[in-house]
Amino acid sequence: MLGFFPTLYPGELLYSGIARYQIRSGNLSPKANIEELFNSRNITATADLPCGLDNLVQNLPTYSSATADSLIQKHTLYPFYAPFLPPKRAKRVQESMKSTKGGNIHTTAGVMASAIFAPQYFRFCPECLQKDLDKHGETYWHRLHQIQGVIFCPVHKITLQNSQIPIQGFNKHQYEAATESNCQTGDLKLNYSQTAIKQLINLAQDIAQLLENTYTSRTLEWFTKRYQTLLIERGYANVSGRVKQEKLIDDFLYFYDAEFLEIIDSTVAYKDRSNWLSQITRKHRKVFHPIRHLLMIRFLTDSRS
């Protein structure tokens, strides 16, 4: 059992807390560090969907109230993926995260098949960083900032910046903490249109809602029926459920800025009837990326953007 473990801050990645533990424990060997935490030397330092959480919880100090479930819900990216995974599949992801054999986690969650590219470096908001330093005397990796599609901090509405720490480091067992030295604010200027910026902030706020709440996982059939109902209500499908694809694509591309869709790897080719927008309106035979669900939900339920 560990003699101590850092209290995790609100919205902090578990990865970040482990990195802070490694510094305070004085462990110089990354493998010795993970063996102390997980009773295994095979755990990989994973930022989004870590595994070995049952062993970690068993090793936490007696004063800790953390459970594997609470760590998964509050300090990993599981809540970002889970609402859009079928219940049995979401359960398998949870079970893999709790075990020390998590090699299939990202495949099960649909991350490996995603066409939306993940950040290569840990990211930070300069204003959040300063707030952390003022309040806690240190900063940490915010889980929201590491999610695909989150380009702007939804709180301060400024651009996130890349740290010097790659998310997939050279040593797969090494945890790297957020510090002032590796989170240097640069002169980053993104020449995005005001419309694209507004929509990027909306998306970041929608993703934040996923992380801050517990939503039920739904079957693929549930999403098929839900979208069909909304499409009929909005005039994009007839009563039999046949989708008016041209009208749908026209209005979707009017609703969302083309630059915004390109930034988040979700462009819709008008002449390609197999594009993701057309596919998501049909019977769901596969899991779609959470960002594309969020785009669809906002489009069908909110006329303002």
What is the gist of this entry?
This protein has 305 residues and is mostly helical. The protein is built from 14 helices and 2 strands; from the N terminus they run H-H-H-H-H-H-H-E-H-E-H-H-H-H-H-H.
Q: Could you give the count of β-strands?
A: 2
Q: Numbering strands along the chain, what is their spatial order in the largest sheet?
A: 1-2
Strand content: under 5%
Measured as a percent range, the helix fraction is 40-55%
Count of individual helical segments: 14
Distance between the termini: 51 Å
What is the approximate shape? globular
H and E string: HHHHHHHEHEHHHHHH
Radius of gyration: 21 Å
**Class of secondary structure makeup:** mainly alpha
Biggest sheet features: 2 strands, antiparallel
- Mean pLDDT level: 93
* Low-confidence segments: none
- Number of domains as seen in the coordinates: 2
Kindly report the oligomeric state of this protein.
single chain
Write up what this structure looks like.
This protein is mainly alpha-helical and 305 residues long. It folds into 2 domains: 14-166, no CATH class; 220-301, no CATH class. 44% of the residues lie in helices and 3% in strands. The chain has 14 helices and 2 strands; from the N terminus they run H-H-H-H-H-H-H-E-H-E-H-H-H-H-H-H. A two-stranded antiparallel ribbon has the order 1-2. It is globular.
Outline the fold blueprint:
Layout (H helix, E strand, L loop, with lengths): L13 H12 L4 H9 L14 H7 L8 H8 L2 H4 L5 H12 L6 H5 L11 E4 L1 H11 L24 E6 L27 H19 L7 H14 L11 H11 L2 H6 L12 H5 L9 H12 L4
Antiparallel strand pairs: 1-2
